Amino acid sequence: MDLQHTGFGIWDYISVALVLIISSGIGIYYRFTGGKQKTVQEYLHADKNMSIYPVAISLMASFMSAVTLLGVSSENYTFGFQFVIIYLGHLVFTPVAAYLYLPVFFKLQTTSAYEYLELRFGKTARLATSLCYTLQMTLYTGVVIYAPALALEALTGINRIAAVLSIGLVCTFYATIGGMKAVVMTDVFQAILMFLGVFSVIISSLVTNGGFANVWKIAAQGNRTDVWNFDPDPTVRHSWFSLVLGGGILYLSLYGVNQTQIQRYLTVRDLKKAQTALWLNWPIFCSLGLATSFCGLAIYAQYRDCDPIKAKFITSMDQLMPYYVLDTMGHIPGLAGLFVAGIFSASLSTISASLNSVAAVTMEDYYKPFRRYMNQDDLSPKSAATLTKCVALVCGVICLGVAFLVQYLGAILKTSLTIFGAVGGPILGLFSLGMFTFTANELGSLTGLFWGMVASMWLAFAPKPLLKPLPTFTDGCINGTIKNTHTVNWSQLSEIDLPWIYRVSYLYNGVIGLVITVTVGYFTSWIVRWKTNRPIQCENYDPNLFIPPLSRRLIIRKKENKTFHLVKRSESDEDLREEKYTL
């Protein structure tokens, strides 16, 4: 294909511009309606009056970014359809998030999810974990900003720097002024565009290649439809074990204890509605994920005899879907623009969610404790809301800077999942120690977090063996010049140069971090209690800090002792108060 003869037309630019304008307009609307974002409660929690349906869609859009649209399609093109099994892992772990972790956060009603760790362990645990979260989301947001810049550069030739700036600045603008209401409602608008962009690719391929059955047949001939890999070997990159277990733990770290999602749950009024929103999220998330995965097969059906990478038409697999759109739909006015609008929307929804949640953590976990340490008075509600907006703005600028470094991290899908697994697994382990056990204490849990983080980060950024993709060909290429088509002789590659642990699938990073954090944390806590002669005194625990089964067990014990203490949120301010209850 000659890229010079199929460009981005005026209608395509209009489509993209409309997405940016409408997204900004939603932010402006919520800035000047309702409470006008004058309180932290409205700015970060939307006054707790959101409907479950936009919240369910927002839960999906928060992490179904351009990374998914570009990365999953190229993953299925290169390695086959096996990746779809990860959505089964999400289903398996949804009830765990909904009925074990979520009730704890809903009882406490804290702005920062990491305030739980201070109540359960102490201030050090809270600060350490919130810092890990801030690092995680800053890196991931940089990936998400960079991904659509790739698409825009591949389609239009617009400078990548200009693309990064346009996406990052627009998103920072509406997330800063419109608060959580603007973020959630733009997520709904942008989710629709994400579906439209993906289905435009699928429909185009089905029309070109003779329907679904024929596309599937072509993919099967290319060995890309096998999803029945049950090999338990942890060095197998994608199998049912790695995708269900590793993908499930990754999902649980995002939807069970991640600040971004906890903040969305708390925009509805009661626990049941939050659980319903989480359950509704799964079919929406799964539908877009399956459609994006099928895009990879649909694109393979088009390029089965002329691989764009081998033919040097594109330089990265993450440019595969944008290249397909330009190649097959570039002549239809506005259709390529619709696809890019979907890519933009996927990134905007995720970036805005990150900025809002990181701003909340910065205010609640860093700034307010610092003011109390300095014996300064609390800010007025209006001043606190204004400062939170400024923090969101600064976070947006920082994430823009990170975006320019992402190009050195490799394939975007693997990079994003690696970041979340390496940080999310140990954080999930720390919350699990607090919610699932009475034995865990602060020293033991922090020790577990440290070693879990060291192990998972070491595995995440250790040298990895060269991946062997499924075969592709260039025999059918007619136009363009094919240069340097020398292929790697995979049979001569040996993995014995790398230790076994380095060959473990990247999806197990989070699992290993979780297991090490829980194991080391639990036994270290037990040793600390034994050495200091401090037995577990369950009567001193607040039942609200534990999962429902343990909470009920504690309440029964406390009834036997007639009195117990609960840590309650004050309805009038952000302070904690302790109340004594007699049964």
Automatic annotation (TrEMBL):
Report the Pfam families cross-referenced here.
Answer: SSF
GO CC, one annotated term? plasma membrane
Q: What GO MF annotations does this protein's record show?
A: transmembrane transporter activity
User: Which keywords are on file for this protein?
Assistant: Cell membrane, Ion transport, Membrane, Sodium, Sodium transport, Transmembrane, Transmembrane helix, Transport
- Which processes are annotated in GO (biological process)? sodium ion transport
Q: Where are the transmembrane segments?
A: 13-32, 52-72, 84-106, 127-151, 157-176, 188-207, 238-257, 278-303, 390-411, 417-436, 443-461, 506-528
The answer to keyword Chaperone applying to this record is no
What membrane topology is given? Answer: Multi-pass membrane protein
Q: Where is this chain's protein located in or outside the cell?
A: Cell membrane
Principal localisation: membrane
PROSITE patterns from the UniProt entry:
NA_SOLUT_SYMP_3
Reply yes or no: does the keyword Ion transport apply. Answer: yes
PANTHER family from the UniProt entry: LD47995P-RELATED (PTHR42985:SF40), SODIUM-COUPLED MONOCARBOXYLATE TRANSPORTER (PTHR42985)
Q: Which family does it belong to?
A: Belongs to the sodium:solute symporter (SSF) (TC 2.A.21) family.
What protein does this entry describe?
Sodium-dependent multivitamin transporter
Q: Which organism is it from?
A: Hypothenemus hampei
Lineage here is:
Eukaryota, Metazoa, Ecdysozoa, Arthropoda, Hexapoda
